[in-house]
């Protein structure tokens, strides 16, 4: 019964998986995992042994350079996977990103050898990979545009709005240090910009909580 329910959930969250044989193959050969917030599940340079299919929750994907500087790339949400992980898996390359669980996440971990097999046997799986690549490409282009063409205050406001939509809450509990890491800035700059935004009545600040105002 549990596998039947999981098959139905998978079909609902990943509508591109139309073939019943593909759904049953994924359910049979993946491992279901529940991961708490804050846990890093992929690190830069790690070998990719599994590809995640997120059933519930959120994973944050981050690019990190050799000196430890970071920039946020995108979130993986319910009904999605990670394009960077898929690419590294199929090419047998080490991971070029790190992934941290943003909110408690329920996912299916699909082994790399199964991913290779599905890519050769099921057109729907290849459709899914194409959709995933296209979505992430658009999101990363948006990141590049904001870094190249927008000031830090605009990037910060967009970051807060995106996070608010993701968590479905206007009140965000996130440290200045974490925001600075995600935006590749400094804590001092973020603190100063938040104070300016508070004066403009865009946000209300209460300790580590930031509330987006109407």
Automatic annotation (TrEMBL):
GO cellular component, one term: cytosol
Signal peptide limits: none
GO MF annotations, alphabetized: DNA binding; DNA-binding transcription factor activity
SMART domains: HTH_CRP
Domain (Cyclic nucleotide-binding): residue spans on this chain: 13-136
Residues of the HTH crp-type domain: 150-214
Stored PROSITE patterns: CNMP_BINDING_3 (PS50042), HTH_CRP_2 (PS51063)
Highest taxon in the source lineage: Bacteria
Name of protein: Crp/Fnr family transcriptional regulator
Source species of the chain: Flavilitoribacter nigricans (strain ATCC 23147 / DSM 23189 / NBRC 102662 / NCIMB 1420 / SS-2) (Lewinella nigricans)
Upper classification of the organism: Bacteria, Pseudomonadati, Bacteroidota, Saprospiria, Saprospirales
């Amino acid at each position: 019964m549990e596998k039947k329910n999981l098959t139905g959930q998978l079909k609902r969250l990943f509508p591109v998986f139309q073939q019943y044989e593909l759904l049953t193959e994924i359910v049979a050969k993946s491992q279901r995992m529940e991961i708490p917030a804050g846990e890093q599940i992929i690190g830069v340079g790690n070998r990719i042994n599994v590809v995640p299919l997120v059933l519930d929750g959120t994973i944050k994907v981050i690019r990190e350079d050799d000196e430890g500087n970071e920039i946020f790339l995108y979130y993986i949400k319910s009904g999605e996977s990670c394009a960077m992980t898929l690419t590294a898996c199929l090419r047998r390359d080490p991971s070029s990103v790190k992934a941290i669980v943003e909110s408690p996440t329920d996912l299916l971990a699909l082994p790399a050898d199964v991913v290779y097999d599905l890519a050769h046997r099921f057109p729907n799986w290849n459709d899914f990979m194409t959709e995933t690549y296209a979505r992430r490409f658009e999101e990363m282009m948006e990141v590049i545009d904001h870094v190249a063409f927008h000031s830090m205050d605009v990037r910060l406001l967009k970051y807060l709005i995106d996070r608010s939509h993701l968590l479905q809450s206007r009140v965000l509990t996130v440290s200045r240090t974490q925001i600075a890491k995600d935006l590749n800035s400094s804590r001092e700059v973020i603190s100063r910009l938040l104070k300016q935004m508070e004066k403009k009545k865009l946000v209300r600040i209460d300790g580590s909580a930031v509330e987006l105002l109407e």
